[in-house]
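Exercise 7b. C-alpha cells:
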C-alpha cells in the first residue's frame, strides 16, 4: 500500500516508516520538526543526536535498499497538506503528527495553545484531505489510553453497552483525560467519530499506553537509525526516564505514592500493532478502536524492577518519592481490556530483565552526555 506517515520524524513515526517500508509498502514520512523545535526552546535534549529526516531516509536506503520519501512542512497549513495528498495519493494515513507531551501541554498558556491548535488543526486537516483527495484511505490515528482516565470500572475497548430505563445502546466509553494533551486526543476521537458517521470514513483509533525501548527489528545493527530517546520530564516516557536516571545515579522520580497504573508496551510491539491495523483495515463507516498495550504496571512496579536490575549491574539505584506535580489518583482501580490486537495476531514482547539490561547498556554508553538539570523541572498541573 501507499502509506502516508504524518509525524514521521518522531519517536514512533520514524521506526514505523522503516518497519512498513521493510514490509513492502511505499512510504512517505512528513514532519515539521515541531518536537525538535520545542526541545531547543525548552533546552532539553535526547540521549544521543538524531539525523534529520532526509538524512535518515538516505541512511535507511543504504542499509536496507528500501526507500522512504520525506517531506518537511506544516500539516496545519492547508496548502501544504493538500499538496502532499495530491502528490502521494495514499491508501492509508498514519497520524502521529501531534504535540505528544502531557507535561509540556500543562506548562503555560503558550504551550497549551500550541498543543490545542496544532493537534486539533492537523486532525481536522487530515480528515478534510482524506475526504477531498483520498476518500477510500484508511486513517490510523494514534490515540492514548490516557483518554479514558482511571474510572472505577473495567475499561472496555473503546465502546460501552449501556442500558438505561429499559433501553439499550452503545456509546464511546466515557473519557476523562488527565492533561490538556490527553484532552486533545479525546477531541480527535470525537472529530473522527463525527466524520465517520457523516462521511463514512474508515478509521482505526489505537489507544496506546506508554512506550519504552530503542531498538526495533530495523535498527538493531544501525545505531544512527535509532529513534529519539528523551529522558527529560517533558518528552521522556516514564520507563525510559527511569533507565537514564538509574545509570546516572539520579534517584528515580516517583510521583506521590507511586500507585498510578498504566498499560505499557515495547516499541517493537507498537510496530506490530500499527502494521496489523494497516494490513487489516477498518470498513468504510467504521470507527474501530483497539487498546494498544501489553502489560499493566504501577510506577512503583517499574521503579522496583529497574532498581533490582540496575543494582545487579552495580549501579546503586535509589528511589525518591516526590510531591506529585500532577492532578491524578495515586492509588486506583485499573483493568482495561485489550484483546483486539491479540486477535489480529499480536505477539507481545514482555518487559524482561534482559530488555531492561539492554536499555541500561545503551544509556551507560551515552552517560557522559546526560544533563541532569533537564531530568526534572517540576511542571505543575495547577
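Sequence design result:
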Amino acid at each position: 500500500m501507499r502509506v502516508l506517515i504524518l509525524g514521521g520524524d518522531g519517536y514512533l513515526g520514524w521506526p514505523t516508516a522503516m518497519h512498513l517500508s521493510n514490509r513492502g509498502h511505499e512510504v512517505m514520512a512528513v514532519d515539521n520538526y515541531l518536537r525538535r523545535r520545542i526541545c531547543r526552546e525548552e533546552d532539553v535534549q535526547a540521549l544521543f543526536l538524531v539525523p534529520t529526516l532526509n538524512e535518515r531516509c538516505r541512511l535507511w536506503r543504504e542499509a536496507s535498499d528500501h526507500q522512504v520519501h520525506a517531506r518537511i512542512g506544516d500539516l496545519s497549513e492547508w496548502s501544504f497538506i493538500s499538496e502532499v495528498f495530491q502528490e502521494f495519493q495514499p491508501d492509508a494515513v498514519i497520524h502521529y503528527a501531534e504535540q505528544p507531551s502531557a507535561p509540556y501541554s500543562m506548562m503555560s498558556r503558550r504551550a497549551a495553545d500550541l498543543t490545542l491548535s496544532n493537534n486539533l488543526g492537523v486532525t481536522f486537516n487530515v480528515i478534510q484531505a482524506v475526504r477531498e483527495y483520498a476518500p477510500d484511505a484508511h486513517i490510523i490515528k494514534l490515540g492514548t489510553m490516557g483518554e479514558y482516565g482511571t474510572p472505577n470500572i473495567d475499561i472496555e475497548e473503546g465502546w460501552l453497552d449501556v442500558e438505561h430505563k429499559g433501553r439499550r445502546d452503545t456509546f464511546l466509553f466515557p473519557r476523562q483525560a488527565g492533561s490538556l494533551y490527553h484532552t486533545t486526543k479525546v477531541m480527535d476521537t470525537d472529530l473522527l467519530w463525527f466524520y465517520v458517521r457523516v462521511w463514512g470514513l474508515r478509521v482505526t483509533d489505537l489507544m496506546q499506553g506508554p512506550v519504552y525501548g530503542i531498538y526495533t527489528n530495523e535498527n538493531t545493527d544501525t545505531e544512527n537509525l535509532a529513534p529519539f530517546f528523551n529522558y527529560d520530564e517533558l518528552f521522556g516516557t516514564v520507563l525510559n526516564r527511569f533507565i537514564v536516571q538509574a545509570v546516572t545515579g539520579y534517584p528515580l522520580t516517583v510521583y506521590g505514592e507511586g500507585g498510578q497504573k498504566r498499560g505499557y508496551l515495547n516499541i517493537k510491539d507498537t510496530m506490530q500493532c500499527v502494521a496489523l491495523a494497516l494490513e487489516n483495515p477498518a470498513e468504510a463507516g467504521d470507527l474501530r478502536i483497539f487498546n494498544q498495550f501489553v502489560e499493566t504496571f504501577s510506577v512503583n512496579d517499574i521503579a522496583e524492577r529497574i532498581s533490582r536490575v540496575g543494582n545487579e549491574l552495580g549501579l546503586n539505584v535509589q528511589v525518591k518519592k516526590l510531591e506529585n506535580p500532577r492532578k491524578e489518583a495515586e492509588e486506583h482501580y485499573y483493568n482495561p481490556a485489550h484483546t483486539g490486537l491479540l486477535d489480529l495476531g499480536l505477539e507481545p514482547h514482555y518487559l524482561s530483565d534482559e530488555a531492561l539490561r539492554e536499555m541500561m547498556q545503551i544509556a551507560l554508553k551515552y552517560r557522559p552526555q546526560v544533563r541532569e538539570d533537564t531530568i526534572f523541572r517540576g511542571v505543575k498541573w495547577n
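Instructor comment: The first strand starts at residue 2 and ends at 6. The chain has one domain: 2-374.
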